[in-house]
Amino acid sequence: xxxxxxxxxxxxxxxxxxxxxxxxxxxxxxxxxxxxxxxxxxxxxxxxxxxxxxxxxxxxxxxxxxxxxxxxxxxxxxxxxxxxxxxxxxxxxxxxx
Length: 97
Ligand SMILES: C[C@H](O)[C@H](O)[C@H]1CNC2=NC(N)=NC(=O)C2=N1
Description:
Elements: H1 7-15, E1 21-23, E2 26-32, H2 36-53, E3 58-62, E4 65-70, H3 80-94
Antiparallel strand pairs: 1-2, 2-4, 3-4
The chain binds ligand H2B.
The ligand C[C@H](O)[C@H](O)[C@H]1CNC2=NC(N)=NC(=O)C2=N1 binds near residues 54, 71, 72 and 73.
């Protein structure tokens, strides 16, 4: 079971993630894909990884703009699982899905 990270730990992780901000007990990032099919391909990749991890993001899809929100509901905060999933989303977004 992942434990909630401290403010310092979260701050350190944020320095090596791209485009993520902390919003209380969540991490948020907006990804703008080149077009709608690319946005859906990114969502598809993230969904497959989330299932493997048994850790699921909130995703808001607006045409080719994706808003991701990560939090570990069972812990009521941000854990290593959110950091891992954020890093995966960064890689997938950079690769364009
Ligand atoms: C029973 C199962 O392990 C839980 O419901 C999982 C599923 N996915 C999850 N996703 C997220 N983001 N937080 C959780 O606490 C969580 N819990």
